[in-house]
Amino acid sequence: MRRTTGWLLACLAMPAVALAAEPPPLTATTAATGLPRTPEQLATTIELADLAFKVDPARKWLDADAHLTLRLARPLQALVVDLDRNYTVSAVEVDGRPVRWSNPEGRMRIALASPLPAGARPVLHIRYAGHPHEAKKAPWDGGIVWATAPTGEPWVATAVQGEGCDLLWPCIDHPLAKPERVVQHITVPAPLVAASNGVQTGMEEKDGWRTYHWSARQPATYAIALNIGPYELLQADYKSRYGNTIPLRFWYLKGRRAQAEGLFAQFAPMLEFFEEMIGPYPFGDEKMGVVETPHLGMEHQTINAYGNDYRKAETGYDWLLQHEFAHEWFGNQLTNTDWDDFWLHEGFATYMQPLYLQWLRGDMEYDAALMKMRSVLMLKHPVVAGHPMLEKDVSDASRGPGNDVYYKGALMLHTLRGLIGDDAFFRSIRELVYGSDAPRPGQFKPRQASTDDFVAIVNRVTGRDYRWFFDAYLRTVRLPALLAERDGGRLRLRWQVEGGRPFPMPVQVRIGRRVVEVPMTGGQGAVAIAADESYTLDPHSKVLRDLPYMAEFQQDQAERARAAAEAAKAAAKAATGSAATETR
């Protein structure tokens, strides 16, 4: 979750705990996530990442010790992992023996004394320390956040989606490189609490420090998170419609019990919605976990970051909580194979918000939410470029689709639902997320998929070829335009699509007081209309299409914003000049 317009609010500004020397800048390798993997990385699976973190907020310092149990698919003469070069590395060992290594750009290469065969399971040990890269505006700018809780204690969190796991631990920084299990030992000053992914397996306290132990299965690489603060815990159990019991956990800042209880009351209805509409909560054997953070939010697996300050909304529920929770299905259970398919995370998670409103209260609020999305489409780059992309290239609207992965993705799903019907639509989603139309807890594993995988599922479920639909919405920039012209007693309709692509999208038209479904074979159709009859194209707003008035609205908004900014700049300059005159 890193969108910057629409329903998102600005991050909360938090004071730093202590001043530290400015670390060297990140290398281009470390600042990016999703770079092509090296041949060695392609042959390597991380079976277990056993990670020990000692976090010292007073010094803004991290001492870390990583033991990675690897599985090799072919013989290798070297191992390669990603790790920020700005850390000081004090030990690198393979199976307990020191080895030679280099890390000039953030891609650590470990030379092996002798080649390892296919099937080998070496243990790579790396001990390192330093000032972790600090996020200036998390979660849009990734790293660690050093903050102070309202009650004065240190408050620390991480969010690394845009830059990747190598800001914190030696990983293979690519969506396809999920470790099979991650165990964390997080040491923090007592009496602070460290909440993290998966299941807490213990805690011990010694010499003024606490160490919390956590274990999680197959987390997305960027979803592994540190959350440290003066937390208190709300907990309950949820009886799922699928027969299992899901632990509900919310770590909130002390002193905020009343607000926390209000948010906690929303956990169960959201679970009920997702399990009814999509399928079983994917991590029911671990927890549905949320933690209050000094940044807005992020979909950290089973420990979603929440920083919306308990704001009330016209929806009657907290949109941030619901959006990040959607990512447990779309992002954590289902992970894109490449960042070019990022809409599989954000488009689906964003569509879950109006869908939740429809489930809660009906069509009016569903339609209103979709209209709000429609007003912020950017339409500068295709949602899917058709080649490997870095996360930042997708999220940055100057060189990628930006917020269109959220809003255009969601509006496209609304259109797809109307086209193929609810049965096929929700079955296609279940098969995408679980690999099955009848998923049961404990009978599925996290999955990875691409846009083409989803298209293939839709085609199989419907028995029709809908590549034209996805091409028109995901692989082009401009929206299809529906052109209408009266011709005698006929209203002639024609789709105009970028690149002349085929677009046989049927459309409803209100003619007088009746609504007619018009087939658009070959992208064209016609309907009878009397001279005294009016008409409305797509009266129930089922189809995402070009709306000239919306472009005019956006242009007017942009021009007014520019004028206001220029006026504010001129006023500030005049005030500065006036102050300078008064001091002379």
Task: Give descriptors for this structure.
eight-stranded mixed sheet; 584 residues
Structural features, described:
- The protein is of the alpha+beta class and 584 residues long.
- The strands form seven sheets. The protein has an eight-stranded mixed β-sheet with strand order 5-4-8-2-1-11-14-13. Strands 16-17-18-20-19 form a five-stranded mixed β-sheet, with helices on one face. A four-stranded antiparallel β-sheet has the order 9-10-15-12, with no helix packed on it.
- α9 packs across α10 (422-434).
List the helices and strands and how they pair.
Layout: H1 28-31, H2 39-42, E1 44-56, E2 61-72, E3 76-82, E4 88-94, E5 97-98, E6 101-102, E7 107-116, E8 123-130, E9 143-148, E10 154-159, E11 181-189, E12 193-195, E13 199-206, E14 209-217, E15 227-229, E16 231-239, E17 245-253, H3 257-264, H4 267-277, E18 288-292, E19 297-298, E20 304-306, H5 319-326, E21 334-336, H6 343-361, H7 363-374, H8 391-395, H9 404-420, H10 422-434, E22 447-449, H11 451-462, H12 467-474, E23 481-487, E24 490-496, E25 507-511, E26 514-518, E27 524-528, E28 535-537, H13 548-583
Parallel strand pairs: 1-11, 17-18, 18-20, 21-22
Antiparallel strand pairs: 1-2, 2-8, 3-7, 4-5, 4-8, 6-7, 9-10, 10-15, 11-14, 12-15, 13-14, 16-17, 19-20, 23-24, 24-27, 25-26, 25-28
